[in-house]
Write a structure and sequence with these properties.
single chain, 5-stranded mixed sheet, globular
């Protein structure tokens, strides 16, 4: 039996584009085409910063029920034998802290302090997942999901990239002191 530290977060992505800085000739405003649709999907991100192993789930909403599905999927993917103890750090969103959330028996949820997104190693990973959809327009959520899915698969196949984004110094310190 071993103890493994993971971090979780969600990111909302939809038909209204994620805007990023772009270069434009001096004195000219850049053109950014936008779709004014208000349809969204949510990317649930789970990452083990020490190894760079990650798991992603794209769901239509954030809720207690969706969090339940995400936790079960994550547990099956990262701890199929059920022998490891998973410590999962997450923010204090209502769907994380609800007493209705049924946590798998081998998992412990610990909340970050309020208003401290900079502590979460999952934050840069959420930003990385959104990069391929930035400053682009899509006709449907299916197109958005396809691009997100490809980026999630790319990241899961490249743990060294994920580790470089998420292995914060404070995590090294915590893991070295255990």
């Amino acid at each position: 039996m071993r103890v493994r530290l993971f971090v979780q977060d969600e990111g909302r992505v939809g038909l209204k584009p994620v805007l990023m800085r772009v270069w434009a000739p001096k004195g000219q405003r850049p053109i950014a085409v936008q779709h004014r649709g208000f349809q969204w999907v949510y990317v649930y991100v789970f990452v083990e910063p020490a190894t760079g192993k990650s798991d992603f789930l794209i769901l239509p909403t954030v809720s207690v029920e969706a969090m339940q599905v995400a936790l079960q999927q994550f547990d099956r993917a990262m701890n199929p034998t059920g022998r490891d103890i998973i410590v999962l750090l997450l923010d204090g969103a209502g769907w994380h802290t609800s007493p209705q959330v049924r946590v798998p028996p081998n998992m412990v949820l610990i909340n970050f302090p309020p208003y401290t997104p900079e502590l979460s190693p999952a934050e840069p990973l959420v930003g990385q997942v959104k990069r391929p959809v930035a400053s682009r327009t899509f006709k449907s959520l299916d197109e958005v999901e396809e691009v997100l899915s490809q980026e999630c698969q790319r990241l899961m196949a490249n743990p060294s990239v994920v580790r470089s984004l998420t292995f914060f110094p404070w995590i090294r310190h915590v893991l070295n002191s255990i």
